[in-house]
TrEMBL record:
The gene is spoVG_2. GO terms for biological process: division septum assembly; sporulation resulting in formation of a cellular spore. This is Putative septation protein SpoVG. It comes from the Bacteria. Belongs to the SpoVG family.
Length: 91
């Protein structure tokens, strides 16, 4: 599986949510609404989720192993940093 496209939509308001991302895999499958969040230990991603009847949030789509999750997270955060650098260069 290759990530063939990443679309980063930065969030302008202050807070922990920094961006919302869509990724395309193998130019055939897209996952929308992946969140880039600023946590106590730095940036991380949260997969798209919905609130269940019991009030808990459950991921709608997610990697099934930690290696794949790490690879996706690293790729997304790299693209997020590139988007920040482009904005800084334009300013």
């Amino acid at each position: 599986m290759q990530i063939t496209d990443v679309r980063v939509r930065k969030v302008a308001k202050e807070g922990k949510l920094k961006a919302v991302v869509s990724i395309t895999m193998d130019e055939e499958f897209v996952v929308h609404d992946i969140k880039v969040i600023e946590g106590e230990k730095g940036l991380f991603i949260a997969m798209p989720s919905k609130k269940a009847v019991d009030g808990e949030y459950r991921d709608i789509a997610h990697p099934i192993n930690s290696r794949t999750r790490e690879r996706i997270q690293n790729f997304i955060l790299e693209k997020y940093e590139e988007a920040l650098a482009e904005d800084a260069a334009e300013a």
